Amino acid sequence: MGIKASHASYALRVQSAARDELTLSLSGRVSLDDADRLLAELEHLSTGPTVAVKVDLADVSYMDSAGVLTLFRFEEKTRRGGRALVYLNIPERIRGVMELIDRQALTILPHRGEGARAGFVEAIGRAGVRLYTDFRSLMTFLGDLVAALGHIVGHPRDLRWGDVLFTMRRTGAEGFPIVALISFLIGLIIAFMSSLQLKQFGANIYVASLVSLAIVRELGPIMTAILVAGRSASAYAAEIGTMRINDEVDALITMGFDPIRFLAVPKLIATVLVLPILTLYSDIFGIAGGLVVGVMGLDLTPYTYLQESQRTITLFHLISSLLKALVFAFVIAWIGCQRGFQVRGGVEEVGAATTSAVVTSILLIVVVDSVFAVVLHYVG
Predict the structure, then answer these.
(1) CA-to-CA distance for 112 and 128, rounded, in angstroms?
(2) Paired residues of 21 in beta bridges
(3) What is the domain partition of the chain in residue ranges?
(4) Rg (CA), the chain
(5) pLDDT tens digits, 166-179
(6) Cα–Cα distance between 107 and 176 in angstroms, integer?
(7) What average pLDDT does this structure show over 119-142?
(8) What's the CATH number for 3-106?
(9) pLDDT digits over 237-288, tens only?
(10) 115, 241, 277, 361: which sits with the fewest CB atoms below 10 Å from its CB?
(11) Checking DSSP bridges between strand 10-17 and strand 52-63, what pairing results, if any?
């Protein structure tokens, strides 16, 4: 057969043609610049009712990866047309290039581009799947954490008390100044805003009742928990997440340590011990902030203000405040550690886990506080 297609770099001709078989002979050099043209010519010359197509590569002096991909594209289209394709006399150099290319990866569909937008129903479905997956992960980690706590209760000597004390110092002592300042300012603001209304009716004394009740029952525990979540939950997630990407957690497992018992339990115990104490200080400084307004702006004596506050606050209010703090502390340590253990990939995942730990823990704190508000209303 004669030459059917010839170019400066390569030549393609029909070597033999029969009813059930077509043989194409390729010679010369095939590179990236020839890829599209070669594919079009292969498709043009292979048109017909043949059952099989053979491509003879014996005279090919050079072929780069683009040329090999062109042959693979032609092979795929040929097979989709119901015909078989066989390569003949493949030079060793070209065979090596063919073996380097992952044929299976070529069939994987590309990822959705940044500009592509999912439909409303699809977006809702994906959000539901993500929510379910996250909930399942949280519950699984909660079970592992409770199991680790049970082991520590039976084997207290296995607890790393040095880490507990270190975390207590970092969470409690180092967090005390910001908790005290915020609580004092919150108490001052509530007292000032409520006094603007109450002093019109000569009810200045009730500013003390309002501030003390609001601080002790709601604002003290929840503000302290939110501040600790911002400081400690993020720190727990960042610390454990960094250990994940540095393979330190895998090293602990290799050495026979339970990573949850080794890393999460000391943080949980420290947070549970410290947060109620911080909540008590928050209550005290919140009432002190209201005291400043009562003495300087409402002509109340310190004794009168504190006496009214003491009359308003009951033992039930104080116990419920501390109970909230215990539950909030558990939530903070649980979420912070879980997000850290969830980290996969590179350092950018640590930032995402830190943000998620803070947002999720604050969300759950508000949800738990809402449940407490309803339950304590009927219990009290």
Answers:
(1) 19
(2) 52
(3) 3-106, 160-379
(4) 36
(5) 999 988 888 899 99
(6) 58
(7) 88
(8) 3.30.750.24
(9) 999 999 888 888 888 888 888 889 989 999 999 999 999 999 999 999 999 9
(10) 115
(11) unpaired
- Matching residue, tokens 């292969």: 42
Output the CA–CA distances (angstroms, integers) from residue 35 to 11, 43, 92, in the order listed.
13, 12, 21
Q: What is the 3-state secondary structure (H, E, C) of the chain?
A: CCEEEECCCEEEEEEEECCCEEEEEEEEEECHHHHHHHHHHHHHHCCCCCCEEEEEEEEEEEECHHHHHHHHHHHHHHHHCCCEEEEECCCHHHHHHHHHCCHHHHCCCCCCCCCCCCCHHHHHHHHHHHHHHHHHHHHHHHHHHHHHHHHHHHCHHHCCHHHHHHHHHHHHHCCHHHHHHHHHHHHHHHHHHHHHHHHHHCCCCHHHHHHHHHHHHHHHHHHHHHHHHHHHHHHHHHHHHHHHHCCHHHHHHHCCCCHHHHHHHHHHHHHHHHHHHHHHHHHHHHHHHHHHHHHHHCCCCHHHHHHHHHHHCCHHHHHHHHHHHHHHHHHHHHHHHHHHHCCCCCCHHHHHHHHHHHHHHHHHHHHHHHHHHHHHHHHC
CB neighbour class for 263 (10 Å; exposed up to 12, middle 13-18, buried from 19) = buried
Report the predicted TM-score, pTM, of the whole model to 2 decimal places.
0.67
Could you identify the residue written with the tokens 């969470």? 171
Q: Whole-angstrom Cα distance, residue 124 to residue 130?
A: 10
β-strand partners of 218: none
